[in-house]
Design goal:
The structure is a homodimer of 267-residue chains. Chain A is an all-alpha fold. Helix content of chain A is 58%, strand content 1%. In chain A, α4 packs across α5. The longest helix of chain A has 25 residues. Chain B binds a DNA duplex (30 and 30 nucleotides) through α1 and α2. Chains A, B: Keywords: DNA-binding, Transcription, Transcription regulation.
Chain lengths: 267, 267
DNA sequence: CAAAAGCAAGAGCACTGCTCACATTTATCT
DNA sequence: AGATAAATGTGAGCAGTGCTCTTGCTTTTG
């Protein structure tokens, strides 16, 4: 009634309330996610917590899947930010330290938000297909950090020897001169495996070679496997999870970083 | 009425029917699992498919969790058998071939039964805690196969150099003489990480040393990470999944197998 | 000021896991 | 053989879920 125009900008009291409710829904959803887990996420329960009737929540969130998508995007951001902030405090030339920061950053984030981690890297939620146009880009954020580390490692000439992993260097030159895998195994076609990735805009500017990217993927897969294994308890009761992770993290790091600080080809 | 005793042995018609129904339930449950996924498993739907009333199924399966446990144990058996049969066809002295057989065995099983794989290695089913006394032993079956491979590899003197992974050999001797991890990283305490495992009856007879076990765990974690990543699509659309898996499998194998078929300490 | 758009509320549908009381069938004991 | 006990089938019912639709009310907008 007596409200003048200056205190009622285009975002009117209605729009403001809507934004507040939407945010509140996300907050409550995150709380439920943290305590109950993803599949137990109930729109009705959220509505109840917010003091609104069950059907009312559909004014703010289209469906349960929509809510999940928002949480996923949110979690990707959260994890990437956690990893990034852990990574950025170590000096750029401390390559090993940066790797360890990435690994520990991801792990401690996962331990702190196990359900969020599950949402991102666990089995897909039933009857839910993540929309690639919304979860695609945020999903690569933490991998992108790892890529910059691989690039810097290569630039510093400290990239580990691909032969150590059974990945031949010659496979990049000629396509039919494939490298023989671990002692008489069949062929490993590096270019087929990771070549198309390198043509991706995300990598094109880095000038990475297939072997280096493959090494990076090994490190990433091993790291993610280590965290997954711990969060999901796949190895049963582990006596000293910290020590075990340290071992796996070190091993994963050694796939991209030469261990002794010297270029791989030196004696 | 005219049935004589010879056609009615101790397993009477009632027990036989019960066994049949229980088996049938598992069959239908597996079918639902394959088509709908784990979280969509509905006892009512199964009962409906079996032509019995919804409450009737509780005469045969205690609860939904009980059904899940049976499926999980079943899947562990199925996967272990798949891996084992793939592994057993390659000659015992072809160590690399055995590793590849294990990896491919697990992967093809997972690709053929994605929901079963999810049940075992995906995010835990909400509100379900796997009873360790029933899922514990079957869960280690395929890992056990890998352990025998590591043991045989050591016996053949073809174990990869632990230093390649940044895992020092001296950490087994003195406890405070810890190995420095990748270039100036903190300590890696191998004994703390895997020592207690070695005291386990499963390993005690093998005489494995901590470094070798750690290498095995690296291989396992990387392998499982690779399969998980593919089944769950964690890397987005991969151009050539077979080639990528080949790369990761080879890399994982190189953590336990010396690449050139020679003992690690030779020039 | 009136029309339009946004919102809260409630009823309702189809589904879930699970329990309970009741009737029927089968196995076992006397 | 007959009584008794155990196992099995049936249907109703409770509390919960996602989601839709209609009915009124409030805020914003022309």
């Amino acid at each position: 009634m007596t409200a003048d125009a200056s205190t009622a900008p285009p975002p009117g009291k209605r729009a403001r309330n809507r934004a507040a409710v939407e945010a509140e829904i996300l907050v409550v959803a995150r709380r439920h996610l943290a305590t109950e887990g993803a599949a137990a996420l109930s729109l009705r329960a959220i509505a109840r917590d917010l003091g609104m009737v069950s059907s009312g929540i559909y004014r703010y969130v289209e469906s349960r899947d929509e809510l999940l998508t928002r949480l996923i995007v949110d979690s990707y951001r959260s994890s990437a930010q956690a990893v990034r902030s852990a990574h950025d405090v170590v000096p750029a030339d401390d390559l090993a330290g940066r790797w360890r920061a990435i690994g520990h950053g991801l792990r401690t984030w996962a331990l702190r938000h196990p359900h969020d981690f599950t949402l991102l890297y666990g089995s897909p939620v039933p009857d839910y297909e993540a929309p690639a146009d919304r979860t695609g880009e945020p999903g690569t954020a933490v991998l992108a950090i790892l890529v910059t580390l691989v690039v810097d490692t290569r630039d510093a000439g400290r990239l580990a020897d691909p032969d150590q992993l059974g990945l031949g260097v010659d496979s990049t030159a000629t396509n039919d001169t494939r490298h023989q895998a671990v002692a008489a195994g069949p062929a490993v076609d590096l270019d087929a495996a990771v070549g198309p990735f390198l043509r991706d805009p995300m990598f094109a500017s880095t000038g990475l070679d297939p072997a280096a990217l493959a090494q990076g993927l090994c490190a990433w897969t091993l790291l993610l496997g280590a965290v997954t294994s711990e969060i999901f308890g796949q190895l049963g009761p582990v006596p000293d999870p910290d020590a075990l992770f340290e071992v796996l993290l070190t091993a994963a790091g050694s796939t991209i970083l030469s261990a002794n600080g010297l270029p791989p080809t030196s004696p």
